[in-house]
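Box S2. Input/output pair 1.
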Amino acid sequence: MFKDKDRYLSILLISPSILALLIFVYGFIGWSVRVSLSNWKGLNPDYSWAGLKNYLALFSDPRFHVDVRNTLIFTSVFVVGSILLGFFLAVMLDQGLKGEGFFRSLFLFPMAISYIVTGVVWRWLMNPAEGSRMSGFNLLFTSLHLDFLVNKWHTTPIWGMAAIALAAIWQMSGYTMALYLAGLRSIPHELREAAQIDGANEIQIYRNIILPLLAPVTLSALIILGHMSLKVFDLIIAIAGKQLPLDVPAIYMWQTTFDGLFYARGAAIGILLLISVAVLIIPYIRYTLKTETQQ
């Protein structure tokens, strides 16, 4: 009797959260799907059926092709750079470095800053101006007589996305460092000692023991960073503004919906973004649940 009472009480306590989730998440997703299948353009709602017309128009839209290309470039540089730098920092901190707490906080601090603030700072650092208006990295390179490193940064087509990804790497590498550091600290020290007794050097230990054991951490970092990169918006706006060569789906969605008042097309872009994120998140959730069940 008491067990049933506790169960009903638990359901009652979480029911407001479940109701809010159903309405404000899944309800709005369903409404966005319906809008994306309509002809709504302008301030007055128009729910007349359009089928997949908005989606097909996006697939044949040159701007959307640019968006997909830019997203792939940004995601590749951001995810790979954050994981490599985060792992390197974690390995350095795992060596018993003096002042580890200070450095750990220092590397994690950028994560507490919003992308808007990061973008404003890095826009100055990556200032492409020349001559007397030169500042940031270009001025530093010139002062160090490294003129061959001076470049146009985010104003360069295609590779401008890679330059913007540097700011994102700076902000999120501390997070991946924390993930890897926790993973490294969870590996029994006896495994390393046994490998050293067998004659393995440090490189062999990391390649054959440490990295395989850190595979779940790497997977988690890939999923988290990957879904963040697919939704990037404010960082690009803060650094480069609204430029077609540096356009991404989130910016296209914003301009289509709120500047062009083409709500149906904007909803279609939003649903495609949701699907792209779900492609990453759902397999990861299934893998996590399967792993927990097996344990």
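Box S3. Input/output pair 2.
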Amino acid sequence: MGWIILIILAVIVFVGISVFNNIASLENRVANALAQIDVQLKKRGDLVPNLVSTVKGYATHESSVFENVTKARTMMQSANTVEEKAVASSALSGALRTVFAVAEAYPDLKANQGFQQLQSELSDLEDKIAYSRQFYNDTVLAFNNSITTIPGVFFAPTMGKTSKAMFEASEGDRAVPAVQF
């Protein structure tokens, strides 16, 4: 009888350690995924001044566009939470779309090699940011599932673990763009 109790206790301890390690590992993956988003957003933020200075040379009377880009970049740099980062990222994306729309009005600018390179780099970064957001959300889903399903639901509260927030698009990002011919 004593051996059975000992075996049951050993199984409970083994399951507890396994669940603890799984939850801790997933939480670390969530932190890493968010850090990867930050890396890509910082790269984008670092490219913005180069893009603005290139466009400014051609579109000197579009000062409000550049002010909006600068404000959005500042907002991005000061964002701390996932929600703040999502809102700031959307604001910067919108401001950059405006810059590219302004660039359409300046054929010389569109032909400028520096502008084309910056536009290409930003496009590549946007793809990386989208992938990083998707990876983050997939990782958050795995973490949230691990702490809300059995056996994690029994261990997570004692570990002080709560659900993480997804990186969600803002309403502006969800809007369907108007296409006119």
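Caption for Box S3: The domain at 2-165 is CATH 1.20.1440.20 (de novo design (two linked rop proteins)). The first helix runs from residue 2 to 56.
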